[in-house]
Design the sequence.
């Protein structure tokens, strides 16, 4: 059963839930960890770490989801693609200045 992820969870709990969901997707695709490792060009240790909630790189996650044909999981990341022009302009016009002490002050 899919493990829901909520804001009330700690980061460790989120990683664990993501790992469980990845494991479920792999099993539903009728693949062993070793088969996914070979087909997606990921180390077996990376897959084990991801599925156990010990973390994974974004590249590992993308490779796993690509081979499992589950990019639909990334849809919410892809939906907010427009940048608000007013915020972008405001940030571009802010000047960054270093704070300097007057030359006659001691450090």
Sequence:
């Amino acid at each position: 059963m899919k493990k829901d992820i909520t804001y009330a969870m700690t980061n460790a709990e989120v990683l664990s839930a993501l790992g469980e969901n990845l494991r479920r997707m792999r099993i539903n695709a009728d693949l062993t960890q070793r088969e996914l490792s070979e087909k997606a060009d990921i180390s077996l240790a990376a897959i084990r770490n991801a599925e156990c909630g010990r973390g994974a790189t974004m590249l590992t996650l993308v490779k796993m989801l690509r081979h499992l044909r589950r990019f639909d999981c990334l849809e919410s990341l892809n939906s907010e693609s427009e940048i608000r022009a007013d915020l972008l302009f405001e940030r571009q016009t802010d000047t960054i200045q270093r704070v300097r002490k007057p030359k006659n002050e001691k450090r």
